[in-house]
Amino acid sequence: METITAAGARRAALAAQGFGQPRPSGVVNRGHLARLMERLKLLQLDSVNVAVRAHYMPVFSRLGAYPMSLLDEAAWAHSARRPRMLVEYWAHEASLLPVADWPLLFSGAKRHGWWRHYRELVEDNPGLAEAVLTAVKEVGPVGAGTLEDMVGGAGRRPRGGSWWGRTEVKRICEFLFGTGQLTTGTRVNFQRLYDLPERVLPPEVLAAPPVDAGEAARRLIGNAAAALGVATEPELRDYYRLGPDICRAAVGELVDAGELEAVAVRGWNAPAYRRPGARMPRAVSACALLCPFDPLIWERARTERLFGFRYRIEIYTPAHKREHGYYVFPFLLDDALVARVDLKTDRVANVLRVPGAFAEPEVAVPRVAAELAAELRLMAGWLDLDDVVVGERGDLVAPLAVALAARSAG
Q1: CA 325, CA 342: separation in Å to the nearest integer?
Q2: CA nearest to 200, candidates 43, 87, 81
Q3: What is the C-alpha separation between 122 and 389, in angstroms, rounded?
Q4: Coil vs helix vs strand at 113
Q5: Which residues of 158-187 are buried (b: 16+ CB within 10 A; e: fewer)?
Q6: What is the C-alpha separation between 75 and 97, in angstroms, rounded?
Q7: Ordered DSSP codes for 137-190
Q8: What is the pLDDT along the chain (410 residues), one digit of tens a residue?
Q9: What does the alpha-carbon distance between residue 249 and residue 226 come to, in Å, rounded to a whole number?
Q10: 372 in helix, strand or coil?
């Protein structure tokens, strides 16, 4: 078993995640997005829209300013010239993934999702489930609210307001989505509009022969290993939220087949794995803001082990107890996480606000401030905002304000 340094593992992870090469110099196109998705495998969806929705940001972090319509078309539109590239499903969490991987998640390899709690409702109301499917077939893509109106009086709120207060129709839609009988046709203002898979997915995906759970687990773990660079078995498992037993079996089988190799990482207390031939560059030159749902930092214990960076999202922390802010972006510079930046898009004033910015210990603050200022300007322009406005919290706000002013003057 080869032994590698923790720094080598960190650089391998960054290269696997698309940070080992420069951003495109010209207009970002569908080919760039396809190659990035081949690396990342997943983009997490999240409803928080404080700065920018979560699925857009990892593409910006790696490719720079790009038209968001590029991702929208890849995920929620289809034409003969531009077939749908991505589809929604519960993978890590709610995610966009390549259409070819969709069948793998219905093989039995993945743990049952939270929608299993709705099975009893469906079994008790088979006519309601059939009515929902019929309505979607007639008018889809369609939202749950419209479906509630279409199927009549079945939209009763659950007693006691459980299940997040969802109506029976909404819960049945989520069950049908979770079991693959419905998918997302498109989204409007981030609202999911349900449609039938046969109207969304390419025929070759729907016609593909079933994949057994073991084979699907091996393919998903192979995807995770490619996306993570170097990872422990629990980290590989977490990428698609697979069950522990089937994941351990898949890792062992991939090692036996020569498709994964075990490595020891100095300072790690568990074995790690990588794909044979995985890149481990001698240096990484990167500059990127990472949203809280970026796949590089999904797994917080891994983030701390790779970067020495303890990170927690503080959205649900009372304001007076927050350490760094409401929606904090780690800032990646070269191969280190060097700062934390609280960000908010203010559409009324048309500015990107930085309520707080905090440097990590022992970083070169002038360089961090200058590089961060450039990245914030780029992000503001990408979001069609006029300016970047710095607040008062954190030891980095003063040098950042100076660096932003210098860029404006220049």
Answers
A1: 6
A2: 87
A3: 51
A4: coil
A5: eeeeebeebbbbbbbbbbbbbbebbbbbbb
A6: 9
A7: HHH-SB-HHHHHHHT-TT-PPPGGG-GGG--HHHHHHHHHHHTTS-EEEEEETT
A8: 899 999 999 999 999 999 989 999 999 999 999 999 999 999 999 989 999 999 999 999 999 999 999 999 999 998 778 889 999 999 999 999 999 999 999 888 887 788 888 888 888 888 889 999 999 999 989 999 899 888 865 555 555 444 444 688 888 999 999 999 999 999 998 999 999 999 999 899 999 888 999 999 999 999 999 999 999 999 999 999 999 999 999 999 999 999 999 999 999 999 999 999 999 999 999 999 999 999 999 999 999 999 999 999 999 899 999 999 999 999 999 999 999 999 999 999 999 999 999 999 999 999 999 999 999 999 999 999 999 999 999 999 999 999 999 988 76
A9: 18
A10: helix
How far, in Å, CA of 342 to CA of 50, rounded?
Answer: 10
Q: Is residue 315 a contact partner of residue 326, using CB atoms and an 8 Å limit?
A: yes
